Amino acid sequence: MVETSGVGVPGVTELNIEPVRLREFGMDLMTQLGVPQEKGEICIEAFLFGSLRGIDTHGFFALLPRMVREIRAGMIDPKADSCVIKRKTATALIDGCRGPGPVTAFQSMNEAMRRCRESGIGGVATYNCNHFGAASFYGYQAVKEDLIGLTFSNATPRVVPHGGREGVHGTNPMSFAIPAGKYPPLVVDIATSASSAGKIGQALKKGEKIPEGWALDQNGHPTIDPEKALKGLFLPMAGHKGYGLGLVVDILTGALTGSFCGKEVPALEDLTTPYGASFCMLALNPSCFAGVNMFKEKVDRLIEDCVTCPPMDGVERVYFPGELEAIEEERRTRIGVPIQEEDLDRFYQNLRDHGLDFKEDVLI
Amino acid sequence: MVETSGVGVPGVTELNIEPVRLREFGMDLMTQLGVPQEKGEICIEAFLFGSLRGIDTHGFFALLPRMVREIRAGMIDPKADSCVIKRKTATALIDGCRGPGPVTAFQSMNEAMRRCRESGIGGVATYNCNHFGAASFYGYQAVKEDLIGLTFSNATPRVVPHGGREGVHGTNPMSFAIPAGKYPPLVVDIATSASSAGKIGQALKKGEKIPEGWALDQNGHPTIDPEKALKGLFLPMAGHKGYGLGLVVDILTGALTGSFCGKEVPALEDLTTPYGASFCMLALNPSCFAGVNMFKEKVDRLIEDCVTCPPMDGVERVYFPGELEAIEEERRTRIGVPIQEEDLDRFYQNLRDHGLDFKEDVLI
């Protein structure tokens, strides 16, 4: 089913595609790419998670073509399971074995969750990983079982240290997913840089400038031109604070695993070499502290205080972290995932260029 | 020994006081206040940690009078040990029993460290706490034993949610302390608000304005006047990102312990009621992952990449997180902790007002 929505640029047709069709289409491609059924499902759900929650930079149409490219180039081993190298009561060191990023991340979070059920907390650090999509997908895994899920990943060094003009660490996302009672989960999912490549790319596409404080050009000078920013470097969020947090992410991932760290992390776009990012997953079990019911009651009250907070002038109302994404998820589950017709054509062409075979009417 | 340093405002005499004298002076007061020897030492070391590292808002002259006031008011029980309420292999829920904040925090971090030695990771959440001073003091405890130490505390709700104009959570600090090899530890110690009461107070004292984006006045309008800011509310760092992180701190502390959370946390300045903040301490053991030597090598390399990064125009050089504090610690350990003469007089008067007895020549 297709709906052409009235919003958007004149002359541009926007399609809304039902999630069930994206699943079917995606799973067919996964099979063609040699990704086993169960692993393919994890990847497609991770991509849909981004698309449904409005995180289009980490959604189906952004990440599926990336994975196709990386499997075809041999960067990703489509069949690889991750493998526990060292285990303790509450921790594990894991080799991601170049499996699909979402598969590795899902298995890592499972290991952390397994440990935290008994021990109260579980921590896993995983190396030899590929891009996992939206970090909060794996926190959600924990939330579904009334656990707290924390997710960290390092990335290609495109972020300058505070005061510097050379990339030293990545946009290094951190995500915290928290189970609530009567509200949707409270989800914080942020890059530790002021912005991300995805957001700057969106500004470029819309012909917009980017805010000051986001990026430097290739020569290390501040820029508001998204094109120069994408060829240049990103600034940490909140100056020295984001700089510190970005390094902490590299330490909990690359340093803890003894793998690539900071400037050592290869360029994601370089298809000639494995990516080699690292993840860290922590899971905490509220039932080992004051109990799940008490915990959810407290989280609900905190959320209540946020959403009933009087707004500043010019602000309609205050949302809690993850609320806008939950609203969008409900909406897009109902009406479908939006994509512009010309983007869909490019998406198809990209897949065909990689020798994939499909019927276009599966989606529309 | 006193040195009058030439820096500072004309007509203002700045004294530099040797750490050993501050220790002796402080321990005498601790005894008068009924704080047992071992606990008194923890408090004084926590205060000196702030003073030596240049974190004067969380140093000896700021926090000792606060503790005196709070012990005299009955908010702090000077003899109380914290008490484990619930234990799992890798976690503990602890009642801080209104002991001195640094004592509770020290004991909580010890519990987390004990668990992480065997299990790889340890997590402790503690309620019924008082102000612990500089968060990174407790991370340092872990670093001394080659462990990673994470510290979180909630606080009186003075920070608005993103877009709101009522305080919903505290400045909610988070600290990460990381052992390095040939470098001093990498230490991130930040409020999740754009600034802190301490820094705004310093601006007020110097007669300076504060930057935009730090605070709102009592009516919820942006202000750069530090006096109005101190009567008003603080903004989260980096907009929605700091808002999310601030809430996460309340969740890992107040919600996990089932204690005061967000708006429920009492006002620190209200001496008629216990403070009731909560802490969360996490410790991770690099030897349970890729090993301590490998870990330190990676952290060293990351630090190296930061300090050798070419600086932006107008910046002398790039420092790694914790480096400026380590330099200051070395300097102040040598030349002493600076204080203006009139501030020292006020400090003495404040102590006398609380019935404490001492000889002024202990310090100078």
Walk me through what this model shows.
The structure is a homodimer of 364-residue chains. Chain A has 364 residues and is an alpha+beta fold. Chain A has three domains: 1-72 and 336-364, Orthogonal Bundle (Hypothetical Oxidoreductase Yiak, Chain: A, domain 1); 80-193 and 237-322, Malate/L-lactate/L-sulpholactate dehydrogenase, NADPH binding domain (Ribosomal Protein S8, Chain: A, domain 1, 2-Layer Sandwich), CATH 3.30.1370; 194-235, Hypothetical oxidoreductase yiak, domain 3 (Wheat Germ Agglutinin (Isolectin 2), domain 1), CATH 3.30.60. Helices cover 40% and strands 16% of the residues of chain A. Chain A is built from eleven helices and twelve strands. The first copy, chain A, has a seven-stranded mixed sheet, sandwiched between helices. A three-stranded antiparallel sheet of chain A has the order 9-8-10. In chain A, strands 1-12 form a two-stranded antiparallel ribbon. In chain A, strand 3, helix 4 and strand 4 (121-129) form a beta-alpha-beta unit. In chain A, helix 2 (37-52) runs antiparallel to helix 3. Chain A is globular and about 55 Å long.
Determine and state the CATH class of the largest domain in chain A: Alpha Beta
Q: Which architecture of the largest domain in chain A would the CATH scheme give at its second level?
A: 2-Layer Sandwich
Q: What would you call the quaternary organization?
A: homodimer
Rg of chain A, rounded, reads 20 Å
Q: What summary fits the major beta sheet of chain A?
A: 7 strands, mixed
Helix fraction of chain A? 40-55%
Shape of chain A: globular
CATH 4th-level superfamily of the largest domain in chain A: Malate/L-lactate/L-sulpholactate dehydrogenase, NADPH binding domain
- CATH-defined fold name of the largest domain in chain A: Ribosomal Protein S8, Chain: A, domain 1
Number of domains of chain A: 3
Mean of residue pLDDT values of chain A = 95
Distance between the termini of chain A: 6 Å
> Structural class from helices and strands of chain A?
alpha+beta
Order of helices and strands of chain A: EHHHEEHEHEEEHEEHEHEHHEH
Question: Total helix count of chain A?
Answer: 11
Strand content of chain A: 15-25%
| Biggest interchain interface, per-side counts | A-B, 84 and 84 residues
Total beta strands of chain A: 12
Low-confidence stretches of chain A: 1-6
Which strand order do you get reading across the main beta sheet of chain A? 2-3-4-11-5-6-7
